[in-house]
Amino acid sequence: MRIAALTAVVFLAAACGGTAATPPTPGSLFTLSASTPPAKGDIDAFTWSIYAEPPTLDYVYAFDYPQNMILSNVCESLMRWTPQLGLEPGLAEEVKQPDDKTFVYRIRPGVTYHGGGEVTADDVVFSLRRHLDPAVGSYWAKSFDRVTSIDKSGPMKVTVRLKRPDSQFNQWMATSAGTIVNPRAVRAKGSGYGNPDGGVDCTGPYRLGPWRKGESIELDRFPGYWGKKAKAGKVLFRFITDPAARTNAMLTGEVDGGYLIAPDSYARLRTGGKGTLYFGKSLTTVNLSFTNLKGTLGDVRVRRALSLALDREGFIRTGLQGVGSIAAVPAPRDAWPQQAAQPPAAERDVAAAKELIRQAGATGKKITVATSPIGTDVSLLATAVQAAGTEIGLDVELKTIAPDAYTALFSDPKARASVDLFPCTYYLSIIDPLASYSIFRTGDFENYAGYTDPAYDKLVDQATAEYDPARRAALTARLRDTEAGQVLWIPVAEWPTSLYLGKRITGAPTSIAYMYYPWAADVGAAG
Questions:
Q1: How far apart are CA 181 and CA 404, in angstroms?
Q2: How many angstroms separate the CA atoms of 333 and 285, rounded?
Q3: How far is 236 from 456, CA to CA, in rounded Å?
Q4: How many CB atoms lie within 10 A of CB 135?
Q5: What was the pLDDT predicted at 344?
Q6: What is the pLDDT of residue 374?
Q7: pLDDT band at 347 (very low <50, low <70, confident <90, very high)
Q8: Are 308 and 391 contacting, i.e. CB atoms less than 8 angstroms apart?
Q9: Which of 196, 478, 488 is nearest to 330 (CA)?
Q10: Are 269 and 19 in contact (CB under 8 A)?
Q11: What is the largest CA-CA distance in the chain?
Q12: CB 3.0 to 4.6 Å from 442: which of 42, 144, 452, 512, for a disulfide?
């Protein structure tokens, strides 16, 4: 799973114009589209807006939207997502489990790198082992914490052995954790691999073209691709950091489309007459993350009171422009098996919240909430927490953090020491609700509040070791109930994927599959 850090919420910054005079009712202004119309033919090129320039395209550090939105079309993993958020073979044409601690991947033959040469089992071993090297410092190392060995076990076979069963491992192989690259390019470029001058050497439907620092990245169709040929000859990703400028570029036709549309731009794009705004399945939630379970928030009654008093509907109306639904639990609905029953969303009850504060003896006690001008989701949600806390008798202080420092909240305990909670946008990188609950395990990197409970840890381990999806979901439901009882997180909203396509192109998936599926290859002529 992944935390959406600073760059993952930048696109929410306020955009000018187009905002409805009366805030919309949550859920009233959007419907989910399963797909966009398929392309009717090839196209020479299209231009795509992206809200930030990737710091690198080295897959071991591809841990955010900009990197993966591009790399999903250039590099390939052993497994991959489908547009419907399913899992299918990628560079591994088959995966077998001879026992619950072994995965055997049969590598697809005849796959060619952009720079020449065919993918081998040795290349797969090299690519996966990079995550195990502390000197590399892979951001995906957690995905390999149960791995004991990765070895070539045949001419085109690789065997991964685990310390203990891990139902999540093969799912991670659809992300950048499972990406396969040309070892010769990595060795030749060294620390420059993945940078504008070093480039990358992979196997996807597009190869990396010119990278103009601070301006754009170009992808060129790879004629030697083993799979379905891309419909567009070129894709130009333009870095447009200002949301209003991105919207203007879409409406003028300067760019043909983009994902991650700013909520304040929804109305302008809907009524602009230049294209279509779509919403699709997502694994994204907006939440409040606790950083301190001592002091005022050490009493679960205070945490529950804040959750009861929070005006989620008001936040969705203003912060998300009505495009979202109230979140009942941390794990988004689209991550759960269809048969898994979910609890109803929390009802706002200020009177009950005030009583909990009284029982806890917390009236007048202080909590500090991080806020930032980084975007409307952060600032409006922080303000909503302050309003809720004040209404029920708490002393709520907002601590403003500069946008470039907000990211440190997700990685640096020292940065979190001065606040008690902060707004965060969170998305899953594997399609499993367990990923939303394993972060509360003792010592987990994303367990920001430092929660610890041996019984909870044992249940996480039990669920992780369970390969049957239904039984794993049942165990995860028990974790969900435990988390809800302890209020380790305040879920606020589920947020669908947003996509805008100008009139001349179509075919892009509407779901968050663009992170780990070669979506650009499906984009072609609309007419």
A1: 31
A2: 10
A3: 47
A4: 5
A5: 79
A6: 75
A7: confident
A8: no
A9: 488
A10: no
A11: 70
A12: 452
List pLDDT tens digits, range 135-160. 999 999 999 999 999 999 999 999 99
* Amino acid sitting at position 401: I
Provide the pLDDT confidence category of residue 2 given band limits of 50, 70 and 90: very low
**DSSP-assigned letters across all residues of 389-406:** HHHTT-EEEEEE--HHHH
Q: Judging by beta carbons within 10 Å of its beta carbon (0-12, 13-18, 19+), is residue 361 exposed, middle or buried?
A: exposed
CATH number of 10-24+32-72+193-281+497-525: 3.40.190.10
**Residue ranges per domain, the chain?**
10-24+32-72+193-281+497-525, 75-188, 282-496
Please give the Cα distance from 321 to 18 (Å, whole number).
11
* C-beta separation of 425 from 281 below 8 A: no
CATH number, span 282-496? 3.10.105.10
CA distances from 311 to 254, 303, 505 (A): 39, 15, 39
**Tokens encoding 248:** 């203007």
What is the DSSP secondary-structure string of 262-331?
A: -GGGHHHHHHSSSEEEEEEEEEEEEEEEES-SSGGGGSHHHHHHHHHH--HHHHHHHHSTT--EE-SSSS
Please classify residue 330 by burial: count the beta carbons closer than 10 Å to its beta carbon, then call 0-12 exposed, 13-18 middle and 19+ buried.
Answer: buried
Extract the tokens encoding 328. 């009942």
Instruction: Enter the CATH code of domain 75-188.
Output: 3.90.76.10
User: What pLDDT does 7 receive?
Assistant: 34
Angle value at C-alpha 427, between 426 and 428, nearest 5 degrees: 135
> What is this structure's pTM?
0.89
**CA quadruple 201, 9, 24, 240: dihedral sign:** negative
